[in-house]
Every structure is written in structure tokens, then in C-alpha cells.
């Protein structure tokens, strides 16, 4: 048995049937944005308030919450909140760059997140 598989790494990263109806995105982000749109992903501690802020931005067409990094394969919300899985909560934003700039998304992110607050996660990733 591969030791990395016990930490959630490995080739079997397809969502299982129990993950299909999850409110939290599961599995790898191997899909592509809609035509003429882009993805950006932000890690800001708890994702619920940040996701709502992004949903209100003109030009944002879709948001998804999920987890990145970590040591457990397909963690539950409770697993991640326990602080034992080393995951970050993230929001993936799909947006139309003609209607919403990446700078606008950064402004929304930084208005909702103060990385100097103890135990806060921080990160943003441009995905094209």
C-alpha cells in the first residue's frame, strides 16, 4: 500500500456517489470555466461569508466552496473545522473578465479578510 494514499493522495480522485449532492465541492478542480470566463480561487478562513460577498459582485457568474491541501481524502466540514486535517477552506469564483476585473475580486477579498487576525487562512490563486 502506498503511504501517500493513506493521507488522501493518489490516483483515485473521482467523486464518489455520496459526494455528488454535497454542498461543498469534492474532488479535483479539473473542469474548465464557461466560454470567455475565468476562475479565481480564494482562501480566507471560513468560506461562507466570503462566498456571499463574491456572489454579489456584478460579473461573477458562479461560486463554489471547498477545501484545498490537507491530509485527509474527502474531508467533511466537521473534519476540517476540527483543525486536524490541515485543509484550507476556499471559494472558487467563475467570472466574466469583461464585466468584472481580477482587481475587483481582490478588493472584495481583502475587504472581507484580514490576514493579520490570529488563525486566519489567506491565499488567492488565478486559474485560467
Automatic annotation (TrEMBL):
- Biased composition range(s): Polar residues: 13-22
Keywords from the UniProt entry: Oxidoreductase
The GO terms this record gives for MF are:
peptide-methionine (S)-S-oxide reductase activity
Could you tell me the superkingdom of the organism this chain comes from? Eukaryota
Region annotated Disordered sits at 9-32
Q: Which InterPro entries does the annotation name?
A: Met_Sox_Rdtase_MsrA_dom (IPR002569), Met_Sox_Rdtase_MsrA_sf (IPR036509), MsrA_MetSO_reductase (IPR050162)
SUPFAM superfamilies tied to this protein: Peptide methionine sulfoxide reductase (SSF55068)
Where does the Peptide methionine sulphoxide reductase MsrA domain start and stop, copy by copy? 40-122
Q: Which enzyme class, named as a word?
A: oxidoreductase
Protein known as: peptide-methionine (S)-S-oxide reductase
User: What organism is recorded for this protein?
Assistant: Gossypium schwendimanii (Cotton)
Amino acid at each position: 500500500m502506498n503511504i501517500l494514499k493513506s493521507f488522501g493522495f493518489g490516483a483515485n480522485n473521482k467523486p464518489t456517489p455520496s459526494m455528488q449532492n454535497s454542498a461543498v465541492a469534492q474532488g479535483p478542480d479539473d473542469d474548465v470555466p464557461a466560454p470567455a470566463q475565468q476562475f479565481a480561487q480564494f482562501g480566507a478562513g471560513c468560506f461562507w461569508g466570503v462566498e456571499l460577498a463574491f456572489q454579489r459582485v456584478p460579473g461573477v457568474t458562479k461560486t463554489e466552496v471547498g477545501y484545498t491541501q490537507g491530509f485527509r481524502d474527502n474531508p467533511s466540514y466537521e473534519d476540517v473545522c476540527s483543525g486536524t486535517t490541515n485543509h484550507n477552506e476556499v471559494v472558487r469564483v467563475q467570472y466574466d473578465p469583461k464585466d468584472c476585473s481580477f482587481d475587483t475580486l481582490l478588493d472584495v477579498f481583502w475587504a472581507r479578510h484580514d490576514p493579520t487576525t490570529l488563525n486566519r487562512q489567506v491565499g488567492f490563486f488565478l486559474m485560467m
